[in-house]
Design a protein that fits this description.
385 residues, alpha/beta, FAD/NAD(P)-binding domain, D-Amino Acid Oxidase, Chain A, domain 2, 2 domains, 20 strands, FAD/NAD-bd_sf, FAD-dep_OxRdtase, oxidoreductase activity, membrane
């Protein structure tokens, strides 16, 4: 055995770092984080489009966002580091009656939970972006407290604060197996040797399913590529704009410095860990973008600044959180389906409660536990980009 800790966290992205921080803040500092790469925060966290929003269809996701975004507002004073939260808003553009009805139900629920959200006419929505096409729109929803952040700064802030409390980080040290005795985890196997533990937390993101399989568990988390494309500096849109989503096509965009960051999910792409930019898919992205925002036709492409990352997707587009009923000492914190950055503060708090108090209690996460798949009680998240 090369080492021992009360808790071993697998994955040094924003979720693992947040959990480590929150455990340490509660006084549980005998923690080791295992990172498979030679550098921490080099996977999905660093490749995120960085959006944060309250506008979800699930009450639990709204609660996770409400807590998390408030913490990001005070990140520097509470944690250290830089969240760089820019609350420029999220603007959802809707051109379908059934979708509009769903969004109106969402708005009612979001407002009941204290979230600020506005319902806009097409003309009101058009004020945000010059020459936006609105002739086929029914309306829009706008969340003024939504926006985007700095994922790397958040993850690094949590990680360094945890390390200052005594949490240990092992780089280049993947989990390659588990020791299980009488139905509970007793150690994690690594290429360097065995690390004994009482609790292991799977925060492996796109690889969480593979990590769970090492313990004989079936975790329905699969990786999917998401491409992010960047324009050259584009003064035609020279003011801050919301992170804007054309719901009908899935096209989204926001400003990044003087440029425009944009993307669109490919629903036909199979699961993989491929993080090479899909240049063939760019044509479909541009087509959808120019349809709704003709002003983009004159934008140039900054090929060297485009990138691809991985979403960790579950069948219902909700995360899997909490203790596993089939393996004592094993906890899931993965499957965020593109929402990991924005929900990292709440997840860190709740998983720390799960470890220290025996059960998360600040927000009820029962509908996010893995046994929902056995019960067939899935409430899929409707607002997925």
């Amino acid at each position: 055995m090369i080492d021992r800790a009360h808790v071993v966290i697998i994955g040094a992205g924003v979720i693992g770092a947040s959990i480590a921080f929150h455990l340490a803040e509660r006084g549980l500092r005998d923690v080791i984080i295992l990172e498979r790469e030679e550098a921490e925060i080099s996977g999905s966290t660093a490749r995120s489009a960085a959006g944060v929003r309250h506008q979800f269809s699930s009450r639990t996701n709204v609660l996770l966002s409400r807590y998390s975004i408030e913490r990001l507002r005070h990140f520097e004073e509470e944690v250290g580091g830089h969240a760089e939260l820019r609350q420029v808003g999220y603007l959802f553009l809707i051109n379908d009656e059934a979708t509009w009805a769903q969004y109106m139900r969402n708005v009612t629920m979001q407002r009941e939970l204290g979230v600020r959200v506005e319902v806009l006419t097409p003309d009101e929505a058009a004020r945000f972006i010059p020459r936006m096409r609105i002739d086929d729109l029914i309306g829009a929803t706008f969340g003024p407290d939504d926006g985007y952040c700095d994922p790397y700064g958040i993850a690094l802030g949590y990680l360094r604060a945890a390390q200052r409390h005594g949490v240990r980080l092992y780089r280049g040290t993947p989990a390659i197996g588990f020791h299980i005795d009488s139905g509970r985890v007793t150690a994690v196997e690594t290429p360097a040797g065995t690390i004994g533990c009482e609790i292991v937390i799977n925060c492996a993101g796109p690889w969480a399913g593979e990590v769970a399989a090492l313990a004989g568990l079936d975790l329905p988390v699969r990786p999917y590529r998401r491409n992010v494309y960047m324009t050259t500096p584009f003064p035609a849109i020279n003011a801050p704009i919301p992170l804007t989503i054309d719901v009908g096509t899935g096209f989204y965009m926001r400003r990044e410095g003087q440029s425009i960051l944009m993307g669109r999910s490919n629903p036909n792409e199979p699961s993989s860990t491929n993080t090479n930019v899909d240049w063939e898919w760019l044509e479909a992205v541009i087509e959808a973008g120019i349809y709704r925002f003709p002003i983009l036709e004159s934008a140039g492409l900054a090929e060297q600044q485009c990138w691809a990352g991985l979403y960790e997707i579950t069948p219902d587009h909700n995360p899997i959180l909490g203790r596993h009923p089939d393996l004592e000492g094993y906890i899931d914190a993965s499957g965020f389906s593109g929402h990991g950055i924005m929900h990292a503060p709440a997840t860190g708090l709740l998983i720390a409660e799960e470890v220290i108090d025996g059960r998360a209690h600040t927000i009820n996460i029962d509908e996010l536990r893995i046994d929902r798949f056995r019960r067939g009680q899935l409430a899929s998240e409707f607002n997925v980009i």
